[in-house]
Design a protein that fits this description.
Blueprint: H1 2-5, E1 23-26, E2 42-58, E3 61-74, E4 79-84, E5 96-100, H2 113-121, H3 130-137, H4 144-159, E6 163-166, H5 169-181, E7 192-195, E8 198-201, E9 207-214, E10 219-220, E11 233-235, E12 244-245, E13 250-254, E14 262-273, E15 279-282, E16 292-297, E17 299-310, E18 317-324, E19 329-336, E20 342-346, E21 349-353, E22 358-364, E23 370-376, E24 382-388, E25 468-469, E26 472-473, E27 475-478
Parallel strand pairs: 8-17
Antiparallel strand pairs: 1-14, 2-3, 2-5, 2-6, 3-4, 4-16, 5-15, 7-9, 9-13, 10-12, 11-13, 14-17, 15-16, 18-19, 19-22, 20-21, 20-23, 23-24, 24-27, 25-26
Amino acid sequence: MRRGTGRLAAAALSSGLVAAGVIALAGPAVADDVPVNHGGATATLGGLTTFDRVVVREGGKAERISAGLFEMSVDNGGTLQSYSVDIHNTTQDQAKYQEVPWSASALHNNRNAGKIRWILQHSYPQINDLDRLARAAGTGTLSEKSAAAGTQVAIWRYSDRARVNAVDRQAEKLADYLYEAARKVREPKASLTLDPPAIAGKPGERIGPVTVRTNASSVTIAPPTTTVPSGVKIVGKNGRPISRATNGTKLYLDMPAGTPDGTAVLTAEAATKVPVGRVFTGIGQHAKSQTQILAGSSESTVSAKAAATWAQNGPVPAVFARKNCAKGGVDVTVANRGDAPLTYELAQQPHTLAAGKTETVAVPAAEDQAYAFALTGPDGYEKTFGGVLHCRAGSAVTPAAGATGTGATDTKAAAGNRPSAQLGKAPVSTPESAAATPQTAAEDGDLADTGSDSSVPLIAGIAGALVLVGGGTVFLVRRRKAQPPQA
């Protein structure tokens, strides 16, 4: 396993945000700059922009908090709007977020997640004609503030089973209407991913495929950079160099026989609107910041990356990890595309993987607790996976003194409690025109304008430099002998 094991590090998936539309091939020199999620949008939370007051009842107490629409700035261009699906946690000021599937969030086991997406499609800001929304819901005059607060209340009744009511009468009527009218719809697809996020093989053959999954109309492909060995190129299914991709396009890495052992990173980039209903979770020290769900998007820059490894002989591994909220841990997938068995140890458990085989190993992790575990091989090879698993709505997190904003109360933060048995469906009144359903909003509607800026105070971060973020993982590699190439 001499030459193959040293390249396990290069097989880690990464992705990030760059401006509109490129798939490029980067060599080892850029490996340290590769972001750490599996694809889509990453953004910075700006704070509540359009909101009003609501009352949360729990354990015999009633407390007022702010509830409404957040705004996020997408890395390298674009703006997102979102609501909370995590009432008992607070937001962290300027928290970094990334786009993830429902399976990697607090919605992973919520049978009403589809109803939350329906609410997003049929209320503010997707319907920003407030007169039309008011007529459909039978509320009377709605302001942007009352529309945002009423929408957030309806969402929390499904995301957290919270007993929550809007202070404003019209907002409460809107919340009742949305709660009663909601129907289940499917989870939206990612804005952009590459599947699988790691590939491996031998020179002289096409390595792959990697399938492009996107809602963008077009993804452009750039030629390999000068840091990649001569003759290495990205090709399509027909074997010809490819200059543009769409959803479902299969990509391969092609190289001449005899190409020196090495690694590369494939980067897909596009400009698109992130689909309404995509979930955003905190990254790094912001991993416990309140989970958000997308309510609107401008055209934003998104990207995804996949790592490639190749070697002449021996085991040739491709490795990536994904958070698995349903199982309460991290799934580490290892593929051996070489001609010899791959022997490794993961979380102190030994494994041997035959040539041509793939296996996924589930590593347990405790909710809201930092974890770290290693994958090791011969010759001092070590890869460490670390982070925080944040999968439950209402998981404990302690806010800083005076924290306010969605999920924090006027005098005492509501964070730190899991939903109790008393948090059932909020009392719902029947609006006069509950049968009137507003016209279906666009699946991926434009971002609506919002009110004045507001920020949410910073709360304590999470210690640790190694973090699992969404589907991706930060890897630390140590090798006491020859340092392997990095992707």
